[in-house]
Amino acid sequence: MTQQTSFVLGLVGAGIGASLTPAMQEHEGSACGLNLTYRRIDAGIEGFTSADLPEVLGWARRLGFDGLNITHPFKQAVIPLLDELTDDAHDLGAVNTVLMRDGRLVGTNTDWSGYGQAFRRELPDAVHDRVVLVGAGGAGSAVGYALLHQGAEHVSVVDVDRERADGCVTRLAKVFGDERVAVAGDVAGALADAQGLVNATPIGMLGHEGMPIAADLLRPDLWVSDVIYFPLHTELVERARELGCRVLPGGGMAVFQAADAFAHFTGRTPDADRMIQYFSELTAL
């Protein structure tokens, strides 16, 4: 059976003009000898909402798309429109990758696996640590899932929205057990008993400058991670690095979630080092 060599893919979201995913996917496709086209389908430009997703998916299917990445604000809204979910997407209640296979729409999630791969690459000795996770939205849930899946002893979840924090913890506890994840109202207290800190809030990205926690709560023996990659080195990452903390910026998650999606879409194993190098070139411009 001849292996497919041409692919039409897309990213569905709002305000996605700055996304580096299209460039990364097309560059890796070219390097693998594929004819791969990747399009942005921007709700902000095209003027559609969650209510229009059935039409968007139908349109993509009729035009011969092989798959779609899904980003904010559609990762939950797309789920009822799919024929099948992988276990991880079901556990998270969020889909960022839709595969179009034999007329069926299959949803999966590479946010968590992407973060996990980036983590193990940079901080392999920290996989069993106790962690404070700030931010319980979609990114936070994916990070929490990755941390617990790879063996974190405990994850304490902090969010300004208590209901959102409770929802995140309930979802993760259902998979990993009540004893390994809990809501933390007191950041200082939670950090005192932790080896790592992850920011999964928008605080620190362009337009949302600042830090998600007080700077004086950082200490040299903590490792510090951020999911933001615009800018790549947030104030949190810079402050932590100055203190001597080991840091994991958001670029790793961005690259590896794209690499995992590429593998799902094409059936090929991407070259992670090549994708990291290309991401570095894109973010250095």
UniProtKB/TrEMBL annotation:
Superkingdom of source: Bacteria
PANTHER family named in the record: BIFUNCTIONAL 3-DEHYDROQUINATE DEHYDRATASE_SHIKIMATE DEHYDROGENASE, CHLOROPLASTIC, SHIKIMATE DEHYDROGENASE
This protein's GO CC annotations: cytosol
InterPro entries, A to Z: Aminoacid_DH-like_N_sf, NAD(P)-bd_dom_sf, Shikimate_DH-bd_N, Shikimate_DH_fam
Reactions catalysed: L-quinate + NAD(+) = 3-dehydroquinate + NADH + H(+); shikimate + NAD(+) = 3-dehydroshikimate + NADH + H(+)
GO terms, biological process: amino acid biosynthetic process; aromatic amino acid family biosynthetic process; chorismate biosynthetic process; shikimate metabolic process
Recorded coiled-coil stretches: none
Annotated NCBIfam families: PRK00258.3-3 (NF001319), PRK12549.1 (NF009201)
EC number(s) from the headed UniProt entry: 1.1.1.24
Molecular function GO labels: NADP binding; quinate 3-dehydrogenase (NAD+) activity; shikimate 3-dehydrogenase (NADP+) activity
Keyword annotations: Amino-acid biosynthesis, Aromatic amino acid biosynthesis, Oxidoreductase
Enzyme category, top tier: oxidoreductase
Domain Shikimate dehydrogenase substrate binding N-terminal: 11-98
Organism: Flexivirga oryzae
Full protein name: Quinate/shikimate dehydrogenase (NAD(+))
Pathway(s) served: Aromatic compound metabolism; 3,4-dihydroxybenzoate biosynthesis; 3-dehydroquinate from D-quinate (NAD(+) route); Metabolic intermediate biosynthesis; chorismate biosynthesis; chorismate from D-erythrose 4-phosphate and phosphoenolpyruvate: step 4/7
